[in-house]
Write a structure and sequence with these properties.
single chain, 166 residues, mainly alpha, elongated, Anthrone_oxy, DUF1772 domain-containing protein, transmembrane helix
């Protein structure tokens, strides 16, 4: 059972780090870069990025993987010293997960469904309807809560290691 506890906690920490990095890259580089582009480039690039990111590797290693692995770590550490840190990480990541499903995915789907019309006025309307500022603000919340979840899981690894050593 100790191996399962350790492995589930390592996988939870790893997947949380990966999804935190993905959210952070959008905050630090992708969205600021796209903000400087014209409407056609913004809509086209965002549609391409959204299409590319929805893949099994991203889902398993990051988005859903962080939730599944953190749930597994939570259950395997019930009643153990690392449990509170893992439970906190799970609660924090659930906030990011819900924000993604409730806010970011609907905005992504709307811009994707709009296609890429030829008229510049339609492109400006699509971009405005996307609500860049709102998407970025909610993404910042995802960055902050997933970073805190990653920190909680990292500390849980320390606590777990100390428990195993004693």
């Amino acid at each position: 059972m100790d191996t399962v506890r350790t492995l589930s906690l390592i996988l939870a920490t790893l997947t949380m780090g990966l999804i935190t990095g993905a959210f952070a890259v959008f905050w630090h580089a992708i969205m600021p870069g796209l903000a400087t582009t014209d409407d056609r480039t913004f809509v086209s690039a965002f549609q391409s990025i959204d299409k590319a990111i929805i893949n099994p590797w991203f889902m398993i290693s990051g988005f859903a993987g962080a939730l599944i692995c953190t749930l597994a770590a939570t259950f395997t550490q019930l009643g153990r010293p690392a449990f509170p840190w893992i439970a906190l990480a799970l609660a924090l990541y659930l906030v990011a997960f819900v924000i993604t499903i409730a806010v970011n995915v609907p905005l992504n789907n709307a811009i994707k469904a709009a296609g890429l019309p030829e008229r510049a006025t339609d492109l400006a309307t699509i971009r405005a309807a996307f609500n860049e500022a709102g998407w970025r603000a909610w993404n910042l919340v995802r960055v902050l809560v997933s970073t805190a979840a990653f920190a909680g899981l990292t500390w849980a690894l320390v606590v777990h290691g100390r428990t195993m050593a004693s």
